[in-house]
Write a structure and sequence with these properties.
Elements lengths: L14 H8 L7 E8 L6 E8 L12 E4 L12 E11 L8 E8 L11 H10 L6 E11 L32 H14 L3 E6 L5 E10 L2 H20 L2 E3 L14 E6 L1 H4 L4 H12 L2 H7 L6 H4 L16 E3 L6 E3 L1 H6 L4 E3 L8 H12 L12
Parallel strand pairs: 1-5, 11-12
Antiparallel strand pairs: 1-2, 3-4, 4-5, 6-8, 6-9, 6-10, 7-8, 10-13, 12-13
Helix pairs in contact: 2-10, 3-4
Length: 375
């Protein structure tokens, strides 16, 4: 079968020639790449500025602005948007002392942009600081050629059915491992709390995990990990998709399973608090479905069918070691009577700020009803 991949033109430029320039000394000046979420709530944008010295803290980074009319974020007539630095990482592409800077977006009136869900998330996390909420998110994604065809799949058909690919090894089972290895190291270098990777059930589908992270750090680290994945894929000339169901039919979708615990849940007898949280979640299923993908549940409807290790989008369920449930309690947690639980509903393209905020609101602030409480 023909497996010649559609790779980007940019990836065919000489990397050896580029390296000649990257090896040039840069003096005391530092390149800071500012990164933000665009008006789709899924896309990331970035641009770079020169700083005269290496920034040591967020306070050392100047605020900046950009043209929101070109990022689906504003009208052309009043298009200045503000970039407010919030988290800083090492840059694995330009290397030390250069930086990646995750920013919040504010509108001309200094109110958060529609897709800036970080500000509210941070406020909610601040209300439960003393409970030390920990999160770990499992980011699934699919590698595609620039033509949108899954990486390594035959150009005019399908690979063999699912079965041998999950955690697979071998050229006929693992499609695109170079990307995974490069991304892992890039995350470690940057200071992202990546804690693992594995090949997934569908060929060309992979997963990385980020955590444990406390509070707002979860969203910050996952968004930067996603940026790094897109940027690594760009170098290889292929594309990473977070679409929750990239291939219709008998192929697994892509989720972002979210593991959650508090200090109480992690201590002796914590299972009681886990069960209380699950009871609260059971009463607020629709609110969570709306928060768990960027289209208010429409994206997840293609994925949460009750097949392919998912629960049905219209029903709430929970169980020990059950991968067909909304909420899974890991077997070891059931035995040790403490630990964490896994919410399997978030979509691969979810906003982690929205997901972690929703969990805290329902489980820790005991909110009820279809709308978030205003504090």
């Amino acid at each position: 079968p023909d497996t010649t991949m559609a790779a980007s033109a940019s990836s065919k430029l000489s990397k050896a020639v580029k390296q000649q320039y990257m090896d040039l000394p840069q003096g005391d000046q530092v390149q800071a790449m500012y990164i933000w979420i665009d008006g789709t709530g899924e896309g990331l944008r970035c641009k770079t500025r020169t700083l005269d010295s290496e920034p040591k803290t967020i306070e050392d980074l100047p605020e900046w602005n950009f043209d929101g009319s070109s990022t689906y974020q504003s009208e052309g007539s009043n298009s200045d948007m503000y970039l407010i630095p919030q988290a800083m990482f090492r840059d694995p592409f330009r290397k030390d002392p250069n930086k990646l800077v995750l920013c919040e977006v504010l509108k001309y009136n200094h109110k958060p942009a529609e897709t800036n869900l970080r500000q509210m998330c941070k406020k909610i996390m601040g209300m439960v600081q003393n409970q030390h909420p920990w999160f770990g998110m499992e980011q699934e994604y699919t590698l595609l050629g620039t033509d949108g065809h899954p990486f390594g799949w035959p150009s005019n058909g399908f690979p063999g059915p699912q079965g041998p690919y999950y955690c697979g090894v071998g050229a006929d089972k693992a499609y695109g491992r170079d990307v995974v290895e490069a991304h892992y190291r890039a995350c470690l270098y940057a200071g992202v709390k990546i804690c693992g990777t594995n090949a997934e059930v569908m060929p060309a589908q992979w997963e990385f995990q980020v955590g444990p992270c406390e509070g707002i750090e979860m969203g910050d680290h996952l968004w930067i990990a996603r940026f790094l994945l897109h940027r690594v894929c760009e170098d290889f000339g292929i594309v990473a998709s977070f679409d929750p169901k990239p291939i219709p039919g008998n192929w697994n979708g892509a989720g972002c399973h979210t593991n959650f615990s508090t200090k109480e849940m992690r201590e002796e007898g914590g299972l009681k608090y886990i069960e209380e949280s699950i009871e609260r979640l059971a009463k607020r299923h629709q609110y969570h479905i709306r928060a768990y993908d960027p289209k208010g549940g429409l994206d997840n409807a293609r994925r949460l069918t009750g097949h392919h290790e998912t629960s049905n989008i219209n029903e709430f369920s929970a169980g020990v070691a059950n991968r067909g449930a909304s909420i899974r309690i890991p077997r070891s947690v059931g035995q040790e009577k403490k630990g964490y639980f896994e919410d399997r509903r978030p979509s691969a393209n979810c906003d982690p700020y929205a997901v972690t905020e929703a969990l805290v609101r329902t489980c820790l602030l005991s909110e009820e009803g279809e709308e978030p409480v205003k504090y």
